[in-house]
Amino acid sequence: MRIELFGYYFYPAFFVTIILVPIIIVGAVILIRKLIERKNVYSSSKITSYEKKHIPPLIEAEKKLTNNEEYIKILDELEEYVKECTYWNIDELLEIDKDAIILLSSLLFDEVKEKHKKDPDKCVLLLHTIDIINGNYDYETKVQWMADDMTELNNHYKMGQDEAKLLFLCDSSLERLIDEYVNIDSNKIPAITEAIPELVGLEREDIASAIRDIEHCIDFTELKSSTFNILELSLIDMLDKVINTQEKDSFDEFYISYFRSLACIIDRQLYDAILKTIED
């Protein structure tokens, strides 16, 4: 059967083809786009060989410190997850336990506190893992790595937004040391304080000098070594308290920015540069 149209004869299959081909093309484009997005996310959230090698021993060490069977069961499941799974997935981690992500983040951060001077490379990688397990891994399509609601300390017109936010975070963390810890009479952080032990004895002028360095720098990577050293301790002290008071099942983008900032400080480079060095 043929259909006459404008003096021409067409078979019905012709009209079906005209309708179906664009639909198939559009559908294929959408499907390919979704597959690429999924691949990008999973490629960033892959559990690396480094993580599979170094995280299970930390979990094993933690199990030796407790007799709590329920806690040990959670640790066992976390260890199995790291060893057997291919990708980090926030929903799967929360299926183990509602506190599993915070628990694992805490274990990794404890290692950072202990090894940030002895093994900085390991600490940077563990801080990146904390970033990933809290669901922040879309770096293939998202360049920004500091939270939207963070303030900027824009010292130079060429400075990027994330770097400006990082500098403000550094500046405010040092101001916090003075406000919360420095003794008015001695002008230093006393032994009787809630600060981490490494901060005890630090003088106000040393902190003030680091603040001046931050407020006048035009390149984060060119901060003085003494400034980086104080910043490491300041961020570690702050994050130690954040972890111990966390009530949600994972860290939001705002607090994850602090973990990323600590990685930047330890590695002496910006986070987007760190991401380029992470391998499977």
Q: Key terms for this structure?
A:
280 residues, mainly alpha, 11 helices, globular
Notes on the structure:
With 280 residues, the protein is an all-alpha fold. The chain folds into 3 domains: 3-45; 49-132; 161-275, no CATH class. Helix content is 62%, strand content 2%. The protein has helices spanning 12-45, 49-63, 69-84, 90-96, 100-115, 120-133, 161-180, 204-216, 225-244, 253-267, 271-275, and strands at 3-5, 8-10. The chain has a two-stranded antiparallel sheet with strand order 1-2. Strand 1 (3-5) and strand 2 (8-10) form a beta hairpin. Helix 2 (49-63) runs antiparallel to helix 3 (69-84), helix 6 (120-133) runs antiparallel to helix 10 and helix 9 (225-244) runs antiparallel to helix 10 (253-267). The protein is globular and about 75 Å long.
Give a brief rundown of this model.
The protein is mostly helical. It contains eleven helices and two strands; from the N terminus they run ββααααααααααα. The protein has helices spanning about 10-45, 50-65, 70-85, 90-95, 100-115, 120-135, 160-180, 205-215, 225-245, 255-265, 270-275; strands spanning about 5, 10.
